[in-house]
TrEMBL record:
SUPFAM superfamilies: C-terminal effector domain of the bipartite response regulators, CheY-like. It comes from Microbispora catharanthi. GO terms for molecular function: DNA binding. It holds the Pfam family GerE. Residues 154-219 form the HTH luxR-type domain. Signal peptide: none annotated. This is Response regulator.
Length: 220
């Protein structure tokens, strides 16, 4: 039985079988409780109001309001839930749009149950769910459209940082873990975390994944 501190999860997918499968799987974890499920991005706002989830598992492709637009709307709310995007293919062309909209990462729908549970727990704790290797692979697939505008935006945001903060941001952009950054820059892991929190605040970014994309768009 989930306790009062259980992480509250909302499942959003237009396929009722996928919703049922995810719900059944998540309910097997003591740390999680599924508070609801909806079939379209247009219904997410009302469901969040009704159930106050900590994490939303959001399908990218839905026939009404897609997961990217639904995520963008959620991230504009005060104290929004974390969002994990669900996709069928790791090369989904919408993944970058999802991350830039404020998602904390993405999962393949065929991820093993323990992987999905781990991802929800990590995101609820404020950690991104993209490993350094996955981040690098995604960055390698970044579409070239609007490259000049992206680079200009990246330069504007990164200009707000101190030299040391820019070093940390550059390491995040290279897909380094906190431990790797700490070793490379001769600081503690706690200090690295503090730097990243400060960088996100200065740049008005939502999470580490967005910071990695910005740093990639303007190599430091």
């Amino acid at each position: 039985m989930a306790g009062v501190s259980a992480i509250r999860v909302l499942v959003v997918d237009d396929d009722p079988l996928v919703r049922a499968g995810l719900t059944l799987m998540l309910r097997g974890a003591d740390e999680l409780v599924v508070v609801g499920g909806v079939a379209d991005g247009a219904d997410v706002g009302a469901a969040v109001d009704a159930h106050a989830p900590d994490v939303v598992l959001m399908d990218i492709r839905m026939p009404g309001l897609d997961g990217i637009d639904a995520t963008r709307l959620l991230r504009r709310r005060p104290d929004p839930p974390h969002v994990i995007m669900l996709t069928t293919f790791d090369a989904d062309e919408h993944v970058f749009g999802a991350l830039r909209a404020g998602a904390s990462g993405f999962l393949l729908k065929d991820t093993p149950p323990e992987g999905i549970v781990d991802a929800v727990l990590r995101v609820a704790a404020g950690e991104p769910i993209l490993s350094p290797g996955v981040t690098r692979r995604l960055i390698a697939h970044l579409a070239p459209e609007a490259e000049d505008r992206r680079r200009a935006d990246a330069r504007r945001l990164l200009s707000r940082l101190s030299d040391r903060e820019r070093e940390v941001a550059a390491a995040v952009g290279r897909g380094r873990s906190n431990a790797d950054i700490a070793a490379e820059l001769h600081m503690s892991v706690g200090t690295v975390k503090s730097y990243i929190s400060r960088i996100l605040a200065k740049t008005s970014l939502d999470n580490r994944v967005q910071l990695a994309l910005i740093a990639h768009d303007n190599p430091l």
